[in-house]
Amino acid sequence: MRIRHANVDDVEKIQDIAMETWLDTYKDIIDENTIREIVESWYDKEDLVQQVKDPVFFVAEDDEGLTGYVHASVRKEKSHLHRLYVRPESQGKGKGGKLYDRAEQEITDSGAERIELEVMAENSKGLGFYRSRGFTEDKEETVVLNGKKIVQKVLFKPL
Question: Which of 16, 18, 55, 149 has the most Cβ atoms closer than 10 angstroms to its Cβ?
């Protein structure tokens, strides 16, 4: 597996990974139509074309193509992990961990002192992953996604 900076040619595969992963991860939390609407909105092609230019947007690639990606932003001493997704059939093989590690290294090198992220409270797999990497809960908040109230946990990790 190779981790590299994302580029414009990756955008459609990133959209595919987002849809596959959201449908798999959130199927017991959010109905399928809402998931599709969220992903189509949040992963708009024009937006992604701009986002892949961010310094912390990496993809994992192997012989089968793109298997995952991570996207974060850095603002002075604080950073925000926006997305970390690995195709369902590639999960549990260390790819998410390697993507996260690469992002954290870039964030640390930028001078940030903290990483923050949000995870749906019912996403036990995601919560377990981030807790295993040293994140702790900062607070809990309710957000509305396409008309549905969702509880999410805000996690942070000092660097």
Answer: 18
